[in-house]
Design goal:
Layout lengths: L10 E5 L12 E4 L1 H8 L5 E3 L2 H6 L1 H27 L4 E4 L13 H12 L8 E2 L8 E9 L2 E11 L2
Parallel strand pairs: 4-7
Antiparallel strand pairs: 1-2, 1-3, 5-6, 6-7
């Protein structure tokens, strides 16, 4: 049996709801046919991106794209505020041997930023190679669609 061409290896679907790994509602994404057939379509997470479906959902797609653009603008303003700070310190509880009681995850960083600076971020958009387990400065990357911003947090000992 001949191999499929590169163009035919994935199919386009329109997401009907937010999906953690595929992004926003009404995005048109390309996925493997098996994943679409076994997961997305039966669970009504997506519909095939046929011309009829695209036409019927066009107004919703346009509205979703506008809201994404607004979110990117607000993220830019939020990061301008965060980066204007001299340092983004996160106090961490450590024992007498300077070891963390618990590693720091993206959720912890987002919760601290929300409670301290009243800025809402999505923890799934923070790119971390691994959980943080040492004091000091750690460079991180925030990625949402076309928005990419690097920032540095400092883990300091809690008093």
């Amino acid at each position: 049996m001949p191999k499929r061409s590169e163009k035919n290896r994935k199919i386009s679907v329109i997401l009907l709801q937010f999906h953690k790994h595929l992004w926003e509602q009404y995005d048109v994404v390309r996925v493997a046919p098996v994943y679409a057939r076994n997961v997305l379509l039966p669970n009504k997470i997506a519909v095939l991106a046929t011309p009829d479906n695209l036409h019927s959902l066009q107004q919703k797609i346009t509205h979703a794209r506008n809201s994404i653009e607004k979110k990117i603008v607000s993220l830019g303003q939020a990061f301008d505020t965060l980066l204007s700070l001299k340092s983004l310190d996160i106090p961490v509880a450590v024992n007498d041997k300077w070891t963390f009681y618990a590693k720091i995850h993206a959720d912890d960083i987002v919760n601290h930023i929300q409670s301290t600076y009243n800025i809402s971020l999505d923890p799934d958009c923070i790119v971390m190679k691994k959980s943080l387990d040492t004091l000091g400065e750690h460079p991180l990357l925030y990625v949402y669609k076309t928005f990419r911003k690097s920032f540095t947090i400092s883990l300091v000992k809690k008093d």
